[in-house]
Each structure stands twice: as C-alpha cells, then as structure tokens.
Amino acid sequence: IATDVAAGRGTHELLCQRIEGQHMQLRITLASDGDVTPRLRALRASWPRQSWAQRYLPGVYLEAPEPADFLTRYLSNMQGITSRIEAAIIAAEHLLDTRTAPQEALPWLAGWFDVALDPAWGEARSRAFIAHAVTFFGWRGTMKGVESALALAFGQPLGGTLFGSKDCRCEGAIRIVETFRTRRLGRIGAGDSSSIADAEIIDPGLAEQGAWRAFQTGLGRSASAAMASLPRLSVPGGHAQDWAAFLLRTSPARQYWQRFLTGRYRRIDALNDAHGSGWNSFGEVALNDAAAATAAGRADWGAFTAGLMPIARTAHRFSVLLPVGPGDATDAETLEGRRRLAARIVDLEKPAHTIFDVRFYFAMNRIGEARLGMDTTLGAGSRSADTLPPALLGRAWLGESFVGPDGPALPDGADLNASRTRLSC
To answer: What is the pLDDT of residue 421?
Structure first.
C-alpha cells in the first residue's frame, strides 16, 4: 500500500529512544472518520537498530552521552531518506518483470522496444506482449507472427499464438489460408473462400492475345493493319516496333514462359531448332494462343501450363479470414474499418515477397461449397436479429440490417398503433 501520511495509510516508522530494561510496551490509539474501520496489518520492532554513528564513525564521537545522542538522531534523518532510496533500488528488479511490474510501469517497459501499447489491449494483453516481444519480433515475416499480431489486435484468444502456451496448437478464430495448401484439397476444403481471378482461369495465351489486341487499338491501328494473333514463330517486320513496345508492359505469364524456355534451352538457337521458330532472343518470345508447330513446342507448352502456372498462381499468396460473430456490427463502414486495420497489420508482419487479401467469414458461405456447421451458422436464418445489427441512419444498407422498436417489448393490450407510429419515425 502506498504510504500517505495525510490519509493515514501506508507504512509508518517510529524511532524509539532511550529504552531501558528487557521489555517494551507500546500504546497504540486507532482512530476513524466513521466511514472506514481502522486496521493494523503488522507491527515489527527491530533491535538493536542500525546506527550510522556506531557503524561508520570512530568511537571518540560517542564517548560523551549527550553529544553522541544528538549525533545519532541527526544522522538518523539522513538514514531515513537514504533507506527509502535503497529500498527502491532493491525493488527495481520487480519493474523489469512483467509479472511483478505495476500497471503504470508497462508503457515504460514497452518503450524499451520502441513500441506503444494499445489502450484497447488491456493489462493482461499488454503484459503478454511485453513478455514475448523478443519472440514476436523474431517471428516477424512468418504466418505465426501474422496470426499473433491479428489475435492481439482483434481481441482473440492468445492460446494458439506465440503469446500463449508453447504446447498449444489450437486453431484461432482468425484463419490464415496459404494458397499453396489448397491445390489438392480444394479451396473450400482447406477453409479458403477466395476465387481465382478470371484472367487466371482462362489460358494465359488467350489473355495475352486480348491484351495485344487492346494495345494495338490504343495505338490507333485499324483492323486491317493490326495483327489479330500473337506472333507465332517470329515477329513480322511490319509489327516489330509495336511488339517491342508491347513487351515493355508487365505480363507475369509471359515472363514465366520466357524464363521457363531460357532454363530449358539456354541458347536461342536451340529453342528455334526445337520449336521451328525464328526468335532473336528469349525476351522476344510470345505466349502461345494456338497449338505449337512442333511436338517439342507442344510438350513445352503443356509442361508450362500444367506445372509451372498452377505453382505461380498459388505461390507466395495467402488469405486472411476475419470472424463476424452474432451481435457484431456488420454495416459497410464498420466492416471496411476492420478490414483496413487487418490489412495494415498484415502488411507490417507478412513476408516481404507475399501477396494477401483480407475477407470475412461470410465470404465462405457459398451454395455447394460451404461445410454445414463449419462455414455456416445454424440458427433462425439470415434474417435473425442475432446476426443483423440495428439500422444506423446514414450507415446501414437496405437488406443488411433491421429496423425494430427501441426498448422492451410492448405488454399485452398495449396500443399497437403507437408502436407503429414510433417505428415509422
């Protein structure tokens, strides 16, 4: 208890002087203001007391009784001041342990890591973060670190993260689905609600063909002057300048195809011999929008589309799925705020070379793909008041919220017209 002399609480020290005999008697009077009962927790008497004059000064200073008594009491004043300082120094180690540090010292401890504690975390989460800060920063750039940062920020249980028990392998409410894990199970089977973009579903050569036609249209080429398909075996002389300008545009599929051929043939002459083509360099090679001219070309294209492209679509990608529980606000503004917060956290903690997206659980509830009881909520249905928040003027959308009476239900025999009037307002 912090000592407050004016309030009459804390620890008080009293110096007893000139005590003679073998026994000591103390009379203590307890007083109260009438609201709080006075209480004495402990009483301790120390003898012999420590005297600076006896411990640190030569004996000549204590030969005369009267001067020795004055000197002892005079030095006791300084001794009392330094004793409190020494006690604080002895207890300083408690400030460096998150289990014993007072709550007001937690921001100071967090400052050692150059971080600021979020007031929304609470004391328990703040202590857990500081205690595991070194481990947390060491896990930055991993899925475990991302999961722990999200659980800390969104108030989720910390048992399954690096802030919890080392033996716990519990799956948290926030799901992180690495796309490469969904190649055989299927996306929904692995808990992923994402869908491949249309440009990735169709043949990469056909997508590149559409981009090439749009590029020529943007240059003002007429239908007769434009080249309808991608270069097959070489670039026609009349389109060499347009094709060189088109190659400056980023195309991951084209770059993967050119690197694939470079690794397989090493020399452009070897590629031309195998494919029956006349390319000047690997950087000039176009994607196939039709069947290759040779068997080697068709085999290479099959290996590329069946092996390399599926890996490229799933590598270094992951999805973050945030829970939306009954009673949580689901208006567009609130959900977008939560999504942006999660995106900022993931962007700080994710591996530098990865791509991610953030969605909510209800994105998984698709007919024919959702798992009953795992990706869905069993209840009264989508119009249940437990799963829909009240409508907020200027923020709610028609169909995603409900309008109902304020306050308790009307008793039997109440005026229903009054209730309708209140609702219409």
So the answer is: 33
